[in-house]
Amino acid sequence: MRQAKTLSILVGAALLSAAAPAPARAAEETVERVVMLMRHGVRPSTKFPATPVGTTRQPWPAWSTAAGDLTPHGAAAIRLLGAYDRALMIRQGLLPAKACAGAGTISAWASGASRAIKTGRAFLETLQPGCQAALDHPAGEEEDETFHPTDAGLAIDGDKALAAALRLAPAGGIDAEVARNADAFRVLERVTGCCPGKACDTSSDATACTAAERRSRLVAEAGDKPDMKGALSFASTAGQTILLQYLEGMPMAQVGWGRASPVDIRTMLRFHPVKFRYETRPPYVAQRLAAPLARRILDAVQGKSGTITLLFGHDTNLAALGGFYDLHWTMSDYPADDIAPGGAIGFEVVRARDGQRYVRAFSQAQSMAQVRALTPLTGSAKPDRQSIPIPGCGPARCSLQAFEQLTMERLERPVT
User: Fold this and answer.
1) H helix runs in 269-387, sequence order
2) pTM of the model
3) Final residue of a structural domain among 279, 298, 316
């Protein structure tokens, strides 16, 4: 009860700070529309235990939230983002300062997964406080063609997907990828107390792991993207789980069994975008997995789905969209191309003073410490927001026409 009251006070303070933004000065450019794809907020691992019994020296700490669902702490962090974006969108002229947005202003769509639906609701609560902003979503993941296209029937040639992924590997293949992340493996192995390729030897504290114990491989999956097996897959899951413990505000004695500092967590997080690089970002894969999202984004920038379009999904969706457009980012204090819980990739349609319209991409995310402490995102404590170049879309600005053409070409003629 006390925790819930504290969260309510923090979010309320953020809303008060966001209620009266400074008036906008005469602008050189005007933001006309925005579309954002956001990863859901903090959750436990999607299954308990996070990794098989015996692959960590001690059992994983327990969570009070069901596996894979948005936690109350995670929802509070998302509400803080909603309050920040409300203030920003008021300054941009996209939302009214006091009244609810008019009908058709906001279009919001979530994945069929509970954590994404709850994330969307939490965000809308503070983006439009006291208003009835609708959030649409499918009944379940098997009916979700936008966020879970392969579950809904999309088929990918597994052999072609594997070949496309392997082309991204350095000389020496996946073994070389493992070798160049040896320092991160050493941190992971110290924290988990085990070598990632075998069951823990609890009779010894030694974690001097061999190349064979770190062995990883990519395998083809019929009708789906490639699947990373072995140490890299384990490392991605374990690193994410320890991150989520930290973000949830667990005592540091429980975060990585008391053996993981914030610096260690950032090091272990390098495995997460490595896994996505091979499984989800290869153009052959990404241009198919992200096609439904790219169509929604194209509709949004063309003004077919409201002034503000919000999409609430998963890290896999953001990774696929990154591969679709070949976007690269660094969200706050996360590794390059990693995807923070509550992090977003967005596109704004901007009208310049000369009347020309262009599209600019951006990333947005709270820092790890901001989520852990539930820091109100006001004053100097803002989320990290960075512009992202759009390759193939002009050396300086990406005109609206060029963005439309680039998107349509990849939708109609994806790489083979």
Assistant:
1) 271-279, 283-289, 291-301, 315-325, 368-373
2) 0.93
3) 279
Domain of residue 85, residue span: 2-48+70-154+283-412
CA 5 to chain CA mean position, Å: 28
Residues 153 and 126: beta-carbon distance below 8 Å: no
Q: What spatial distance separates the first Cα and last Cα of the chain, rounded to whole Å?
A: 55
Query: Tell me: the pLDDT tens digits for 235-283?
Result: 999 999 999 999 999 999 999 999 999 999 999 999 999 999 999 999 9
Which long-range contacts link 17-23 to residues 24+ away (Cβ below 8 Å)? 17/83, 17/87, 17/376, 17/378, 17/379, 18/83, 18/84, 18/86, 18/87, 18/90, 18/378, 19/87, 19/97, 20/97, 21/87, 21/88, 21/90, 21/91, 21/97, 22/91
Phi, psi dihedral angles at 385 (to 5 degrees): -140, 120
Inside any domain, residue 173: yes
Structure tokens at 351: 């009208």
Q: What is the DSSP letter of 92?
A: T
Same domain, 28 and 165: no
**349 inside domain:** yes
Angle formed at CA 21 by CA 373 and CA 304, multiple of 5 degrees: 95
